[in-house]
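Quiz preparation item.
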């Protein structure tokens, strides 16, 4: 049997609002994506994942869905989405879309019906409604906090409280209700029937809650986030039954459809439970994304990942950035421990960050398994750290009392061409302002430049397809000086990353296939560089 494509696919994340604007309204859209499909095919990725494109009030960048079976008019139409699927497939690209099953928008007809229904009614039973505590029920049912800051329960005028792990416009669904399960199984079929190759599952660890709704310990500090290990709204055993049912649906299609879970779960042994043979196919590896630029820490994550995913027969996955975290060019340019500074005051060394990001890209693509790229990674885009306060749209900004600038700095629209904003993103402006100097990062600027980050990604992706050792499989660590990661893959391939402060000699090899920057003299790998070697 041929190896399933998803075991070593390189999947490109399209944050639809910021990728390409075909209609000139400042927001990316389906027409924009279609016009750039040849770019993606040429880049050499195997698949794209498109962030939510459904009708939505856009309180949380589309992760507040009002209708799961349509396209938001600002993004396009269902017919355009179907055309996109056909065009992508004709170019050999698979398409994953985003499923948001933990919560709906408060504008979803189900929640609208719940608002006008009685406490205890079937309409409310599709969401997590609970009575309050205290003499008049005026206190929230639990002391949990929202992921975005602030309270996680909201009260209706009739006294009933509803749960929202995210913004109050994102009420949590009640996955103990069979009607909710049936609805989402139907939504899966709706998109699979239209040719979608799979789903990325939003907040895959959150659907099932501890039915006792226990309080968190007093003053839980960082543990207040539902992404924390042991939170009663995260990683409950009951969630796996949902994914077993979904897997049966996906396996019923020809070719079988696939799932990647967004599960912020620790330790890796718990995460691996999501990708057992009859559950999700893959899951994002956030431990790798969070690892500092440090050889010991990175090696530990790589070993843990290979061991725990291997134990359940699932491929490892690797990711450096997405629309929720500070871009890795910037993270790697900051002091360890301050990579994700939410206030945006940490000094960043852009030169070191870029050097490390280029090396990390080659590491990512040489590791066994599947890899995710976030749009703009291939251009070496940094986080935009100085967006004006009035431009910020992430709900985190307001909900944190304007202390956490949120995630908009990683969501600034892509610079394609030209000398001035919006740099070919569209004919109108762009929903978040681009820095004036982003011409230097544009696709047009980088396309013909052999030293550019875009050229590095293109070459690496081409080699990844051509070199038999790359993709799915295993690795063997090679002896290397402190601060250096070196591993071999069969047949005849080695990858060396120098995270130490001094140049190191490359191990024996026949040829240097690719390096993230010029080598020092004769076969010395400089600090913060990575090389791919042909060893036989
Ligand atoms: C996921 C998404 C994030 C969104 C949240 C709520 O973490 O990646 O962007 O805000 O879920 O849906």
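Solution:
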């Amino acid at each position: 049997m041929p190896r399933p494509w998803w075991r070593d696919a390189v999947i490109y994340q399209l944050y639809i609002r910021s990728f390409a604007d075909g209609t000139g309204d400042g927001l990316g859209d389906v027409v924009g994506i279609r016009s750039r499909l040849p770019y993606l095919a040429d880049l050499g990725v195997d698949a794209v994942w498109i962030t939510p494109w459904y009708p939505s009030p856009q309180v949380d960048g589309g992760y507040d869905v009002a209708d799961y079976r349509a396209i938001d008019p600002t993004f396009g139409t269902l017919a355009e989405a179907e055309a996109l699927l056909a065009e992508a497939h004709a170019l050999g690209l698979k398409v994953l879309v985003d499923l948001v099953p933990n919560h709906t928008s408060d504008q979803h007809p189900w929640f609208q019906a719940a608002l006008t229904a009685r406490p205890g009614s079937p309409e409310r039973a599709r969401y997590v409604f609970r009575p309050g505590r205290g003499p008049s029920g005026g206190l929230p049912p639990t002391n949990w906090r929202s992921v975005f800051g602030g309270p996680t329960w909201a009260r209706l005028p009739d006294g009933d409280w509803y749960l929202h792990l995210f913004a109050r416009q994102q009420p949590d669904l009640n996955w103990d209700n069979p009607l909710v399960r049936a609805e989402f199984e139907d939504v899966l079929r709706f998109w699979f029937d239209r040719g979608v190759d799979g789903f990325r599952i939003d907040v895959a660890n959150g659907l099932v809650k501890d039915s006792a709704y226990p309080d968190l310990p007093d003053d839980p500090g960082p543990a207040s986030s539902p992404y924390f290990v042991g939170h009663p709204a995260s990683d409950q055993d009951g969630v796996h039954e949902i994914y077993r049912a979904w897997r049966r649906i996906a396996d019923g299609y020809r070719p079988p459809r696939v799932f990647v879970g967004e599960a912020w779960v620790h330790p890796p042994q718990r995460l691996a439970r999501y990708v057992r043979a009859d559950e999700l196919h893959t899951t994002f590896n956030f431990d790798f994304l969070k690892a500092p630029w440090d050889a010991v820490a990175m090696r530990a994550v790589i070993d843990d990942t290979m061991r725990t995913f291997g134990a359940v027969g699932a491929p490892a996955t690797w990711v450096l950035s997405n629309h929720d975290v500070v871009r890795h060019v910037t993270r790697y340019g900051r002091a360890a421990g301050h990579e994700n500074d939410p206030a945006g005051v940490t000094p960043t060394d852009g030169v070191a960050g870029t050097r490390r990001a280029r090396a990390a890209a080659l590491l990512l693509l040489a590791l066994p398994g599947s890899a995710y790229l976030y749009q703009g990674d291939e251009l070496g885009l940094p986080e935009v750290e100085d967006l004006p306060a009035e431009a910020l749209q992430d709900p985190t900004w307001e909900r944190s009392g304007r202390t956490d600038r949120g995630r908009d700095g990683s969501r600034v629209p892509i610079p394609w061409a030209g000398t001035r904003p919006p740099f070919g993103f569209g004919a109108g402006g762009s929903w978040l302002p681009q820095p004036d100097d982003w011409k230097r990062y544009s696709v047009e600027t980088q396309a013909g430049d052999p030293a550019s980050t875009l050229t590095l990604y293109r070459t690496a992706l081409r080699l990844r397809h051509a070199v038999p050792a790359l993709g799915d499989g295993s690795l063997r660590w090679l002896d290397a000086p402190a601060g250096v990661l070196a591993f071999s893959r069969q047949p005849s391939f080695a990858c060396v990353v120098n995270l130490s402060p001094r140049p190191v000699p490359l191990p024996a090899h026949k040829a240097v296939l690719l390096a993230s920057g010029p080598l020092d003299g004769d076969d010395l790998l400089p600090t913060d560089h990575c090389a791919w070697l042909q060893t036989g």
